[in-house]
Write a structure and sequence with these properties.
This protein is mainly alpha-helical. The chain has twelve helices and no strands.
Length: 261
């Protein structure tokens, strides 16, 4: 409803003040999602210590990592708002009407495209001349939910510029782009949670989805698992961690050990 009200004001010819309203709204939405997701995983991690992935490592850098969140969130909001603003101004492709076939089609295509974008940008950031922009993120060998925004401005810009460019490539309705960004924010924190709470056969071969173990292994072993939502690109390019599937399977039937409150 809030986005619809903002959309009503974003007629062609809207100015910088309108963009700033949109930018502020996106920042506020990210902060609400971040806080809610963080509270959930902090609670789950305390309740289920047996779900910790890297059991011999500890990350006590919460406040140091959070210090970089304002820059990261600002870039995310800027690139995402930029894409919406361009679409609403008529500068990008005209979005398809939301129908029974266009919604799953455009949302699915956008998800697949973003995963390809993320994989190859991530590989680029591991290229020696570019790694200086990504090295900071990898100082968190044992990630936590707070590591998601522990990144340089350049890294955030490379990852998130997808949301500015996609409206010029795919006629995706803006509500679906909002839904994808919400998913992206939550799944990014899930990937850095450090605890595998949702292990499932669908997160290992022959299924394409990736679990928390997937990105945690990237931090722990550095040269594996570059994807985001899917493991497809890593499997195709030979960058999947050799023990990824077995590690996910080991968490599937783990007996819970609820910690005392």
């Amino acid at each position: 409803m809030i986005f619809e009200n903002v959309l009503g004001a974003m007629n062609p010819g809207a100015g910088i003040s309108d963009f700033l309203v949109l930018f502020g709204l996106v920042v506020a939405a990210i902060l609400v999602i971040l806080a809610g997701t963080a509270v959930f995983f902090e609670y789950m991690n305390r309740r289920h210590p047996e779900r910790k992935i890297q059991k011999t490592r500890v990350n006590d850098r919460k406040w140091r990592e959070l210090a970089y969140a304002p820059g990261s969130i600002s870039v995310i909001a800027l690139t995402f708002s930029g894409g919406l603003f361009c679409q609403w101004q008529g500068w990008a492709l005209t979005p398809l009407p939301m129908t029974w076939w266009s919604v799953p089609l455009t949302f699915g295509v956008s998800m697949v495209l973003y995963d390809a974008w993320f994989y190859w940008v991530h590989r680029l950031l591991h290229w020696t001349p570019m790694y200086r922009f990504h090295a900071q993120h990898h100082t968190s060998v044992c990630p936590t939910i707070w590591t998601n925004h522990y990144e340089t401005i350049v890294e955030a810009l490379l990852n998130q510029s997808f949301y500015t460019l996609i409206v010029f490539i795919l006629p995706i309705p803006w509500p679906l782009l909002v839904a994808q960004k919400i998913y992206d924010q939550i799944s990014g924190m899930l990937g850095h949670a450090g605890y595998e709470h949702f292990a499932s056969p669908m997160a290992r071969t022959p299924w394409p989805l990736a679990s928390t173990v997937f990105h945690d292994q990237h931090h722990g072993f550095f040269r594996y698992n570059y994807g985001h939502t899917f493991s497809v690109w890593d499997r195709l390019m030979g960058t999947i961690h050799p023990k990824y599937d077995d590690t996910v399977k080991s968490f599937e039937h783990m007996k819970p050990t609820v910690a005392a409150e």
